[in-house]
Amino acid sequence: xxxxxxxxxxxxxxxxxxxxxxxxxxxxxxxxxxxxxxxxxxxxxxxxxxxxxxxxxxxxxxxxxxxxxxxxxxxxxxxxxxxxxxxxxxxxxxxxxxxxxxxxxxxxxxxxxxxxxxxxxxxxxxxxxxxxxxxxxxxxxxxxxxxxxxxxxxxxxxxxxxxxxxxxxxxxxxxxxxxxxxxxxxx
Length: 187
What we know:
The protein is α/β, with parallel strands linked by helices and 187 residues long. The chain has one domain (2-182): 3-Layer(aba) Sandwich (Rossmann fold). It has five helices and eight strands; from the N terminus they run βββαββααβαβαβ. The protein has helices at 38-45, 81-87, 111-123, 141-152, 167-173; strands spanning 2-7, 18-21, 27-31, 53-57, 64-67, 129-133, 159-163, 176-179. α4 links the parallel β6 (129-133) and β7 (159-163). α3 (111-123) runs parallel beside α4. It is globular, with a radius of gyration of 17 Å. It starts with a strand and ends in an 8-residue tail after the last strand.
C-alpha cells in the first residue's frame, strides 16, 4: 500500500500531505498524541473515510481487514465466540490461543476477553494487510500476553498497521514506528 500526498480530514484538512509506503510483511505502529490523526488514517485506509487529497494505492488483489478501536458486543442474541468467529469467516481450530473463549457467550466475556476474540477474528482472517486501532485497549496481563502471541503468528507476507499509545505493547509486537506527532495540522 502506498500513500501519495494523502491529506486526511473531514470537511477541512487536518494533516499535511502524507507520503508513506507499507511493503508486504512490514509491521508498523502509528504513534502520537490523541488528535494526531492515527484513527483518522486507519479509517481512511479502511475506506470508512475518503481522503481529502492525494492518492491511496493498494497493490492488486490485496485483502485487508480492520479492527476498530471500540466495537460493542452483540447483545440481542446469545452468540458464542464460535458464532462470532464463524460470522467473521474464521475457523476456531486455527486459533488455539482462544479455544477457552469459543464456547462462551459474548455477553459473558470480560472486556479484555472480548477484545482478544475480536483480535483473533481479524488475525485469523488471512488478509494480507491487518489494520488495528488501539488493539491493547481493555487488556489485562494474561489477555495482553495472549494478544501478543496472536500477533506473533502473523505470516511473513502479512503487513500490520496499528495505532496505539502502549509503547511496551508496540515494542513487544515488533512493529516499526510511524510517528503521527510529526504531522503538522494544516492551516
